[in-house]
Amino acid sequence: MGSQMPYGRNEGMYPHGADVLERDSSDGGFSRGWAMHCKPIPQRYFDVHTHFCGRTDRPVAGQIRGCGEDAAELMNARAMLILQLRGKKRGAGWPPASVMDNFPYYGLESMRAGLEGFERTGQLWAVHLDCRSPEPELLRAAAGMGAKCLKLHNAPAIENNIPPDVWLSRDWQDVFRAAAELGMFVLFHVTQRLSASAYTGGGRNSYWEKGWANGTAYTNEDLLQAFLSCCRANPDVAFIGAHQLHLGWERLDGLFAAYPNLCADTSIGCQLRLCDSFYPHDREYLRLVFQKWADRILFGTDSVWGRSGAGASGGAGAEAGDGVETDAGAGAGADAEAGNGADAEAGNGVEASAGAGADAGAGVGAGVGLDKEHCLRHMRFISELDLPEDALRKICHENAERLCRI
Asked: For residue 160, what are the contacts with CB-CB under 8 A and spacing of at least 6?
């Protein structure tokens, strides 16, 4: 009998999963139209932006077990976990403190010990170096321990009135050259919006208030231009702008066109609340952008792994103002300066061997989980764009896997 309700597809506007299309012809088209609504889904998510917040005197693997189990259940995922490495702090004492002290700093020896068994977790890791630690030897040592990415953050610079051109110094350019030689990419929190962000839970003037009190007079534009100079000077290094560089997509469109090695992650600015939906106009525009630049956008959430108390992260600890502020009591890093023992390696400063807080509520056990809603908001943002399958795969995991060479 002929159908009185013919169905015509428009895959360009409304893409479906590959198996839906396969059913058109397999088995002589017997199952054509069955489960016809099913959209493309990514094979997995690779979160390129997560922070470790635990103890440095215990292996990381045990402390993130609960997070890894949650991620596997939630996203069939792997994550890029950021571990902070304490350097010599050339040209500056330690402190001055910054928001990054809410997360633990390792010395080289404690990092080697902390990474015992990490390869069996299925996760990957990035090494964070402070702007006052332009030390290629630290990057090489971290790469030798398996690091895939260099994480940088301008919060210490903003808060302590360190000029943006610190990244243009010969020492930092040596670090970027080392990254190119090692095949590592750079995840860089470059700017920080001034406004609050009620939808994502972000505060007003994060980092800047402290910086202004310390005499900081430069602007986000100055930070951005220094970063772009690094992109120009190091064309063989992929630079990922965290939080979309706190720029709108119109300007990012132009920057992506001008800088072939520039990428952005989806963290914080690309969330859709679970009870919410896009305005149609916003969705149509974002869908075009994400399709055009699917090779340059990487899934990231800025989640925290390893904090005591499931869900305590607020989803964005290190970015202060999009989650946990500079509350030393909430972080596992605190200042790590007093009473934590000296680093056995000469010139590496003070070792955070006691986990920066030791037993005073800062350590974590094996059962700590992710803030699942925070992750789901980022996943929902991507899902609701209704991207074609090839774009979805690239953004959710293939771009990160390519940069990590896996």
From this structure: 92, 96, 98, 211, 214
Instruction: Sort strands 105-106 and 297-298 into parallel, antiparallel or unpaired.
Output: unpaired
Per DSSP, 79 falls in state: E
Picking from 84, 321, 358, 37, the residue whose alpha carbon sits closest to that of residue 195 is: 321
Instruction: With H, G, I as helix, E, B as strand and everything else as coil, classify residue 141.
Output: helix
Cα(355)–Cα(85) distance, integer angstroms: 13
Cα–Cα distances (Å) from 183 to 44, 87, 146, 320, in that order, read: 24, 21, 12, 30
Nearest-5° angle of CA 180, CA 184, CA 189? 105
For residue 27, give the DSSP letter: G
Structure tokens at 64: 């993130």
Per-residue pLDDT of the chain (406 residues; tens, 9 = 90+): 566 787 888 898 899 999 999 999 999 999 999 999 999 999 999 999 999 999 999 999 999 999 999 999 888 889 999 999 998 765 445 555 788 888 899 999 999 999 999 999 999 999 999 999 999 999 999 999 999 999 999 999 999 999 999 999 999 999 999 999 999 999 999 999 999 999 999 999 999 999 999 999 999 999 999 999 999 999 999 999 999 999 999 999 999 999 999 999 999 999 999 999 999 999 999 999 999 999 999 999 999 998 643 333 334 444 444 433 332 223 333 333 322 333 333 333 333 322 333 222 333 344 467 899 999 999 999 999 999 999 999 999 999 999 999 9
Task: State both tokens at 156.
Answer: 């210490």
In sign, the C-alpha dihedral spanning 354, 360, 364, 370 is negative
56 DSSP 8-state letter: S
Kindly calculate the radius of gyration of the chain based on its CA atoms and give it in whole angstroms. 22
